[in-house]
Amino acid sequence: MAALAASRRLLHLRPDLEFCLRSRALTPFRAKGAGGVQHAPPHRRLVSFRQGSSNEGNAYAAKNNAMQSPNEQFLQLSLEEGEGDGTVSGISESILQDVKKSAIELLAIRAYTVSELRKKLCGKNYSVDTVDSVIADFKSRGLLNDGYYAESFSRSRWQSSTWGPRRIKQALRQKGVPEAEVDQATRSVFQDVQGDEEQTTHGFSKASMDHLFAQASKQWQRGGSLPLEKRRARIVRWLQYRGFNWAVTNSIIRKLEAQHPP
Q1: Which are the contacts of 166, defined by CB distance < 8 A and separation ≥ 6?
Q2: Are 216 and 93 part of one and the same domain?
Q3: Same domain flag for 212 and 115
Q4: CA-to-CA distance for 66 and 62, rounded, in angstroms?
Q5: First CA to last CA across the chain, in angstroms?
Q6: Tell me: the pLDDT tens digits for 104-149?
Q7: 251 in the same domain as 155
Q8: Which residue, among 68, 10, 71, 15, has the nearest Cα to 44 in the 3D structure?
Q9: What string of DSSP letters covers 27-59?
Q10: C-alpha angle with apex 115: 111 to 118, nearest 5 degrees?
């Protein structure tokens, strides 16, 4: 450990070197003379080495970042300049790096909202101030964005499970997404008007209503052997369970009965 600390200090004393830390899962190892299993420190690999002016280094780093995919960004952390055992805004740098590593490992598995990630990190007994500092850093880098998360979640649930706006909004609120982001995401998905001449019906674009009708038609035809009233009640439950209001539900049922008469 002493050699590792000395190496870190040496690297920090050279601000003209650019390097980054790739996240690695901790692997157990048995230390000589010790009876228990300890965790090895994360493996560090020098991925870029460049000497020259700070402007040249910044341009090189910007070019590398532009070529990275979002997942690759999640798997890298830039080491801040300064002493390895110093502090950043009153927070120990070593602890700050530990929190960043934990956040990177979580985000590499799946996307999180800001609220979800904060709860996960605080659940690891990190201080609130340290967690908030990391959250703010990740938001500034674009690694956390509730607006993008909300739209992606809404579109996925709509296309794969035919969830309506009401159910999607409820799920996003439970994930801690702000109300403004929730409303914007559902409008983007369900009112995605492609032309000025295309109007929305009950808050849905024509494409969205066509998609919903196609999915409802499958359910309607599966109940072909049922009496009309039970068949209609079955579709009402199917639509309302997925979060569609009565106006949309009634419109779909009337269209089903017109195009698929009993």
Answers
A1: 243, 244, 245
A2: no
A3: no
A4: 6
A5: 77
A6: 999 999 999 999 999 999 999 999 999 999 999 999 999 999 999 9
A7: no
A8: 10
A9: -EEE-TT-SSEEEPPPP--------S-HHHHHH
A10: 90
Segment 179-193, tens digit of pLDDT? 999 999 999 999 875
Let me know whether 11 and 136 are in one domain: yes
73 lies in the same domain as 153? no
Question: CB of 71 within 8 A of CB of 52?
Answer: no
Q: Are residues 160 and 171 in the same domain?
A: yes
State the total domains in the chain: 3
Q: Is residue 20 part of a domain?
A: yes
Q: Are strands 20-22 and 76-78 parallel, antiparallel or unpaired?
A: antiparallel
Q: How far apart are CA 28 and CA 211, in angstroms?
A: 51
CATH number of the domain enclosing 164? 1.10.10
Predicted structure pTM score: 0.65
Are the beta carbons of 189 and 148 closer than 8 angstroms? no
Q: Is residue 163 part of a domain?
A: yes
Q: Is 164 exposed, middle or buried (0-12, 13-18, 19+ CB in 10 A)?
A: buried
Residue with tokens 């228990």: 36
In angstroms, the CA 77 to CA 103 distance is: 11
Q: Do 156 and 225 fall into the same domain?
A: no
Nearest to 250 by CA among 201, 206, 211, 198: 201
* Measured distance CA(261)–CA(167) in Å, rounded: 30
Tens of pLDDT, residue by residue over 193-237, are 555 445 678 889 999 999 999 999 999 999 888 898 999 999 999
199, 165 in Cβ contact below 8 A?
no
Task: Give residue 183's domain range.
Answer: 145-190
